[in-house]
Amino acid sequence: MRKLLFTLLASVPAMAFSQGFQVNLHGQKQIGMGHTGTGLLQDGASVLFNPGAVAMLPENYVQAGVSPLLFKSAFSPTGSNTQYDVANKIATPFTAYGVWGPKGSNFKFGLGVYTPFGGLTDWGNTWTGKYTLTSLDLKAIFFQPTISYKLTDRVSIGGGFVYNHASVVLKRAIPLASSTGADGEAELNGKGHGFGWNAGVFVKASEKFTVGVNYRSQVTTKVKNGDAIFKVPASVQANFPQPNTFTASLPLPSTTSIGIGYYPHKDWTIAVDASFVNWAVYKSLDFDYANNTATLQDTHSPRNYKNGSVYRVGAEYKASTKWALRAGGGYASTPVQDGYVTPEAPDANRLIFTGGLGYKATKNLNIDASFMYEDVLSRTQTNIETNLAGTFKTNVFIPGISLSYHW
Questions:
Q1: CB 377 within 8 A of CB 391
Q2: pTM of the predicted model, to two decimals?
Q3: Is 276 helix (H, G, I), strand (E, B) or coil?
Q4: What is the pLDDT of residue 316?
Q5: Which of 46, 152, 256, 284 is 20 to 30 A away from residue 220, measured at CA?
Q6: Would you say 320 and 266 are in contact if contact means Cβ atoms under 8 Å apart?
Q7: Is 230 exposed, middle or buried (0-12, 13-18, 19+ CB in 10 A)?
Q8: CATH code (residue 166)
Q9: Pick from 350, 355, 359: which is nearest to 320 by CA?
Q10: What is the pLDDT of residue 17?
Q11: Could you give the CA distance from residue 286 to residue 10 in angstroms, rounded to a whole number?
């Protein structure tokens, strides 16, 4: 029983720490170009991609977009021909940006609201891993007020304060059957917040090249008084005290990015981005429960993640005064080491393919659409804590659309 509770509770926030739940969907123009943007000057999404570029924007912006995400994952247990699939549910990562500065001023101010981490997964309560996970709903919303200053006609800098509001609901079965034969259920439901910052430098190296460097800090999100809810037979209810709460601290890692923009022709833009994510800060996960029993103890669970990296390339072609065509791709390495892959985050190295369209509806209004496909390579693993063994294969499909008004 103690081992059951340890694996049940200690593995919960793994969902917040894999490439699979780092949501890189921060602007439709950028997504269409492989999600590049650190070294480009495009629109209000520079608030996130590189605050240093904001002061160089020739116009003010108000824009918003959504990227419905369909996560298709399958699991085949070792030694079996059976395949289990997640339910068809759609998550809705969104972005909203505003940029404003007086005409002729070297200053611009910005605000970004975006979702850099999130997930929506439902394996159901009949699959072989139901005692590890049945469903997950994770949301992390960042709020970033920003200021940017143009030092010269070629160099600008910027930075912003970040506030994170996060929520998570995770459910899994407990092998304690009721009189009707139904499994017990555990639900962990919590909200938390954290603080960080985002800063960047943007350089117009020449008429054909721009360069950007961006650093997004670690945001340690603290969950206090999250609800631990257990539905178990009355005969063992004393081992699962109710009501009960938990406290935990979750280090969302820092990201360092460098990007280059190249303009070989007035109608063409080519971009390359490289990002390095400091996942190694996630050494262990510790839970402190308000009410303990001999069965339900505070937990310390090693994770030992490694640093990850993402490499992206993209291009835009202005087909006419109203239409723009975009395409791109990339490769992301997983930070999840062997033995730590879970159904909350069935992560592996992945290939990324994107495309997009831009339409200038009026002088001041743009409509941008994008599509991203991620091929998460199959991975056969045995989890060192739960002993869940088998092969995960995941594909992610993400259409998106945004409106931007500029003046």
A1: no
A2: 0.90
A3: strand
A4: 98
A5: 46
A6: no
A7: buried
A8: 2.40.160.60
A9: 359
A10: 39
A11: 7
Peptide bond into 243 cis (omega under 30): yes
pLDDT in tens, 186-215: 888 889 999 999 999 999 999 999 999 999
**C-alpha span between 139 and 117 (Å, rounded):** 7
Separation CA 44–CA 327 (nearest Å)? 20
Classified as helix, coil or strand, 335 is coil
Low-confidence ranges of the chain (pLDDT < 70): 1-21
3-state SS, residue 235:
helix
Domain count, the chain: 1
Distance CA 147, CA 166 (A): 24
Question: What is the DSSP annotation of 17-72?
Answer: GSGGGB-----HHHHHTTT--TT---STTHHHH-GGGGGG-SS-EEEEEE--EEEE
Residues 6+ apart with CB under 8 A from 320: none
Q: pLDDT value at position 21?
A: 61
Q: Which of 110, 87, 91, 119 is nearest to 156 (CA)?
A: 110
What domain range is 319 assigned to? 2-406
Grouping H, G, I as helix, E, B as strand and the rest as coil, residue 207 is coil
How far is residue 288 from each of residues 63, 226, 231, 249, measured CA to CA in Å? 41, 11, 20, 10
Backbone region of residue 125 per phi and psi (left: phi > 0; alpha: psi in -120 to 50; beta: other values): alpha
